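Quick one, T. Sequence first:
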Amino acid sequence: MNSEALNDPTRVTAPPAGGGRGTWWAWCIWLPGCVAFAALVAWAVSELSRSFSPLGVLPLAVGLVLGASLVALMRLFQMGHRPTAWLAVGLSVAVVVVGQHWLGYRAAVVEADRRSEEFQKTQAKFGELVRGSLPPRPASLVDYLRGEAQRGRPLSTVFGQYSAKGALAWITWTVDALLVLAPAVVMMGFALRRPFCRKCGSWYATRRSGSLDAQAARRLAAALELPLEDSAGAARYRLICCNQGCAPSGFSLSWEGNSSGACKRAPYPLGSEIVWLDDQQRTRIVAILDESRNSLTPDS
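Structure tokens:
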């Protein structure tokens, strides 16, 4: 590789364009599939919360599961359109949060109808001997939540059982919603930082990675014009590419200092931590790695 290609910003290989394009199948198949999965999660949470609902733990776990699942679906189906991904997060969280309350509302309506029917049958049989009235049937989801807030939401904590009534109940529901939203947003945010190839429509993935001895690391650092400390010891490398190898490949190199033992990453001359390689540069780096195979412990 010509060292001037790395030092001259006008000749450096450009990183791949961020994000994929919107497609009909992402909007019509992938996005509805994510929402359907979120509805299934809402049902599972509704069932689980009847017997296990420690304060803050369940919604946080739900947010982690939901975020990891959405990222996995995005990787599995190679969906790279970032606005669609964020829309999936928003809709899925809304379905999980609102869905579990709606399932509770429907269960309350069914129970109210059942009790009303039994009351009418008993009243018709015994007449004036049966007195009293049943609690009103919830007219809507908001009406149901208002009734739940008045009765008090039971909270299970390490300090014992408590009941959140009125405004406090609404606050706890809001906190639960935020605890579902936050992990999903963070996980999707980190996942979308990975490059995406618009040519073959695939997310970048690690194709080669492993350990290098100091001599092999110096050869790579020299080929890439990367500053390597004199005290550098064992090093590690990572090569990322798209599925078809039709876009620039990314390469990173890190090592352990013999004196401090701390892990350091070689900075790219323009301030990044990844060197983007064209086909010729990638062929050169792969050749060096193959030549150093005897001193290499591959991870993949």
